[in-house]
């Protein structure tokens, strides 16, 4: 007897090849019915014999397109009403009716098959894609998502592509950026010695890489610089020309097998690497990494190809893939920009004529315990929204000034921009302004209110004011706490432990390790790290020796500090005296209670992070010094967040020749213990862990374990990074919920 199933699916099921997939599956099983998009997802009606219907449901879940995701799937069984064939109902527009844009996705397995099949008409074609994969956010001007609104508008479909595009059974049915060698974009190569178009351009680029050259090439969200990772000469050249001695380079590898040769890969890490989002995953290196790739770092940042061109460029050797710009600056997206900004660095350019509309960096993810944590949420994830439990007025969260990221609410969804860099840099400021306008236009939101950071000198505020916004402000670390509350949809009381770099405090001091009792509508400060003078202000971030001096002076007295500065930093007695005066009088030395800076200072004290090139380098060196038995080491004492005894003991151990790995472990464990004790003292079950210091995987993992072992419910970031990229969401949430300090 024929039955009828009415299936309603909500979640991510539009624009990802779901309807053609369903149509093919129904036809394979001989089922009649209809599928249609609706604003929340998709409605599906099926009629046929019960066993086939059962098979359909099983395969629907097992074989659905890789990027699709069910939030709910409701199935109602009825008697058949006599449908005879399967149809895809026309929605008013061809694309999703969701009203948002999908991220750019790595090639799906079917496209890869075609890419590698000499018989296929798209064999070796770097721009093939389908409804399940390919460029989205980087090529869409505006909604509705239709070819005419993308940068593919200038490439009319050839008859073969058009037939696929119109065929409901084809996986290129309404694939807006679909292309083939006949009708789609083409590569170009140029260098001082040669030029080429089309397939020969790819060959020329590969020859250049092969010979040890540095190639600038147009990736998904902007230009990258690449060279062979197995040759010293190009790596040295790249480091020298980028003026980058220490910051690790990410590697682009062919597949999991190649990855496993260099790094340890768990099952979850393998899933992340091979996911359609294809982020950079920080993996434990098998042997200590090549000093030119990741100096002193036990991890390797590895990504697998995220576009057909990535696949085609890779040969037998791994490539380095680094953004072609200064760290914190936006990617180059146009040819002109690339030639101008990267001309000095590259030996040749591989470009193409499909314009990129938005610069989107590669995302960076690491595993903490067995859960992925974002360090940078960009390509593959942005601009997917976060779903909230209640609709909000149209509001903008302006974010912070480093790792800048905008948050924009529309209804019960918050759209989060990709990583927008460091707003101290003029190019990043221009990028921020562009995205400010673009975001509102793309999501068709008329912003009625905006919120930013309390810091009087944050550029994001000036930039927003210049656009007519009149933002109100929230304290930096409170915004971190509420970002996590919003993300995790936390209800009721929760202790927030905000372990962070620096943020502006309302008393004019530099805050950065703050404990709050948070509730739905208000919060109350409970405790903070004991402060120390930050000698010279911001410059101490680049010269952590200044922090070490400050800590030593306070914990062990001026003689010890002066002697250390003389012996280790080669400071003259006069310079030492000036520092001492600064520490004593506070001259140009604001009080600082940042945990990130404490990490920096301890790292410098142990001689690990005296020379710093990039943000948090010294702090990371301290984490990297840990050994596998770190958790067994007795913690240093810390009472009421005062580090005085901790530094005293740490210094004695260091003087006594105790190995740095053990000292680093005792320091980390001391912080873990302090956090656990705060939770016990507060007695609130939910504990929010947020702030940049929780990028330290040992710290987060140990705190989570310690809290769980004592019956607490630790809450950590899953969807956003713990760092300043989450500030926009926190500001938006605090503003719309009218949260106040009590
Ligand atoms: Zn595909
Ligand atoms: Zn074509
Ligand atoms: Zn922060």
From the structure above, extract its key features.
742 residues; alpha/beta; Alpha-Beta Plaits; DHBP synthase; 5 domains; eleven-stranded mixed β-sheet; eight-stranded mixed β-sheet; binds zinc ion; ligase activity
What does this structure look like?
This protein has 742 residues and is an alpha/beta fold. The chain is built from 23 helices and 29 strands. It starts with a strand and ends with a strand. The relative contact order is 0.09. The model has no long low-confidence stretch (mean pLDDT 94). One zinc ion binds next to helix 3. The site of one zinc ion has 7 residues, from helix 4. Pfam families: Acylphosphatase, HypF_C, HypF_C_2, Sua5_yciO_yrdC, zf-HYPF. Residues 199-380 form the YrdC-like domain. InterPro entries: Acylphosphatase-like_dom, Acylphosphatase-like_dom_sf, Acylphosphatase_CS, ATPase_NBD, Carbamoyltrans_HypF-like, Carbamoyltransferase_HypF, DHBP_synth_RibB-like_a/b_dom, HypF_C. Keywords: Hydrolase, Ligase, Metal-binding, Transferase, Zinc, Zinc-finger.
Helix-strand blueprint:
Blueprint: E1 2-12, H1 18-28, E2 32-38, E3 41-49, H2 50-63, E4 69-79, E5 86-88, H3 109-115, H4 159-166, E6 187-190, E7 195-197, H5 199-210, E8 215-218, E9 223-228, H6 232-242, E10 250-252, H7 256-262, H8 267-273, E11 280-284, E12 299-303, H9 308-313, E13 319-323, H10 335-342, E14 348-352, E15 364-368, E16 371-376, E17 385-392, E18 395-397, E19 407-416, H11 426-442, E20 449-453, H12 459-466, E21 472-474, H13 476-488, E22 494-504, E23 510-518, E24 522-528, E25 532-533, H14 539-542, H15 545-556, H16 558-568, H17 573-585, E26 591-594, H18 595-605, H19 617-624, H20 644-655, H21 660-682, E27 686-690, H22 697-709, E28 713-715, H23 727-736, E29 740-741
Parallel strand pairs: 2-5, 8-14, 10-12, 11-15, 18-20, 20-21, 22-27, 23-26, 24-29, 27-28
Antiparallel strand pairs: 1-3, 1-4, 2-3, 6-7, 6-14, 8-9, 9-13, 10-13, 11-12, 15-16, 17-19, 18-19, 22-23, 23-24, 25-26
Helix pairs in contact: 11-12, 13-23, 15-16, 15-18, 15-20, 16-17, 18-19, 20-21, 21-22
This protein binds zinc ion (3 copies).
């Amino acid at each position: 007897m024929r039955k009828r199933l009415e299936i309603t699916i909500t979640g991510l099921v539009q624009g990802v090849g779901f309807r053609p997939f369903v149509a093919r599956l129904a036809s394979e099983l001989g089922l009649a019915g209809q599928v249609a998009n609706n604003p929340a997802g998709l409605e599906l009606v099926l009629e046929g014999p019960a066993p086939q219907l059962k098979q359909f449901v099983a395969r629907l879940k097992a074989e659905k397109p890789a990027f699709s995701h069910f939030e709910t799937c409701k199935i109602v069984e009825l008697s058949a009403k006599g449908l005879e064939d399967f149809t895809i109902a026309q929605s008013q527009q061809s694309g999703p009716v969701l009203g948002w844009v999908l991220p750019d996705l790595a090639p799906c397995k079917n496209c890869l098959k075609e890419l590698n099949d000499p018989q296929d008409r798209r064999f070796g074609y770097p721009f093939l894609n389908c409804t399940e994969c390919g460029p989205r956010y980087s090529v869409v001007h505006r909604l509705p998502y239709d070819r005419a609104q993308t940068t593919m508008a200038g490439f009319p479909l050839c008859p073969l592509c058009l037939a696929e595009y119109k065929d409901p059974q084809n996986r290129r049915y309404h694939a807006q950026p679909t292309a083939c060698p006949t009708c789609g974009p083409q590569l170009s190569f140029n260098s001082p010695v040669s030029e080429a178009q089309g397939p020969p351009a790819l060959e020329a680029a590969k020859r250049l890489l092969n010979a040890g050259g540095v190639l600038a090439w147009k990736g998904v969200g902007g230009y990258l610089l690449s060279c062979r990772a197995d040759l010293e000469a190009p790596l040295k050249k790249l480091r020298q020309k980028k003026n980058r001695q220490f910051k690790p380079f990410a590697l682009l590898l062919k597949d999991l097998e190649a990855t496993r040769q260099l790094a340890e890969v768990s099952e979850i890490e393998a899933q992340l690497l091979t996911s359609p989002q294809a982020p950079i995953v920080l993996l434990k290196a098998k042997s200590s990494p090549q000093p030119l790739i990741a100096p002193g770092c036990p991890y390797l940042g590895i990504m697998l190809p995220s576009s057909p061109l990535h696949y085609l460029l890779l040969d037998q050797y791994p490539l380095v893939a680094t953004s072609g710009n200064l760290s914190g600056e936006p990617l180059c997206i146009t040819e002109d920009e690339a030639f101008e900004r990267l001309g000095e660095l590259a030996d040749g350019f591989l470009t193409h004529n499909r314009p990129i509309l938005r610069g989107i960096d590669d995302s960076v993810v690491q595993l903490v315990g067995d859960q992925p944590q974002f360090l940078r949420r960009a390509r593959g994830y942005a601009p997917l929204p976060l779903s909230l439990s209640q609709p909000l007025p149209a509001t903008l969260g302006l974010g912070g000034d480093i790792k800048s990221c905008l948050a924009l609410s529309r209804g019960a969804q918050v759209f989060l921009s990709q990583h927008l860099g460091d707003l101290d840099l003029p190019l990043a400021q221009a990028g921020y302004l562009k995205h400010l306008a673009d975001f509102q236009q793309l999501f068709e939101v008329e912003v009625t209110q905006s919120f930013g950071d309390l810091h009087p000198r944050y550029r994001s505020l000036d930039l927003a004011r210049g656009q007519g916004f009149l933002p109100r402000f929230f304290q930096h670390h409170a915004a971190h706490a509420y970002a996590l509350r919003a993300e995790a949809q936390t209800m009721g009381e929760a202790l927030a432990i905000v372990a962070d770099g620096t943020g502006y405090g309302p008393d004019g001091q530099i805050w950065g390790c703050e404990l709050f009792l948070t509730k739905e509508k208000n919060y109350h400060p409970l405790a903070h790290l004991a402060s120390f003078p930050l000698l010279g202000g911001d410059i101490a971030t680049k010269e952590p020796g200044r922090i070490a001096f400050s800590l030593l002076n306070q914990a062990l007295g001026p003689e010890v500090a002066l002697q250390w500065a003389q012996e280790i930093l080669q400071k003259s007695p006069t310079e030492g005296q000036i520092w001492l005066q600064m520490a004593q009088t506070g001259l140009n030395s604001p009080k600082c209670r940042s945990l990130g800076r404490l990490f920096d200072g301890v790292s410098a004290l142990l001689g690990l992070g005296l020379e710093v090139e990039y943000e948090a380098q010294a702090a990371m060196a301290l984490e990297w010094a840990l050994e596998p038995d770190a958790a067994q080491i007795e913690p240093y004492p810390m009472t009421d967040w005062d580090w005085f005894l901790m530094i005293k003991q740490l210094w004695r151990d260091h003087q006594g020749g105790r190995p740095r790995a053990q000292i680093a472990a005792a320091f980390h464990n001391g912080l873990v213990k302090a956090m656990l004790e705060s939770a016990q003292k507060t007695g609130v079950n939910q504990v929010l862990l947020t702030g940049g210091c929780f990028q330290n995987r040992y710290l987060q993992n140990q705190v989570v374990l310690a809290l769980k072992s004592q019956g607490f419910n630790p809450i950590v970031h899953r969807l956003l990074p713990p760092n300043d990229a989450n500030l926009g969401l926190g500001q938006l949430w605090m503003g719309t919920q009218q949260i106040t300090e009590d």
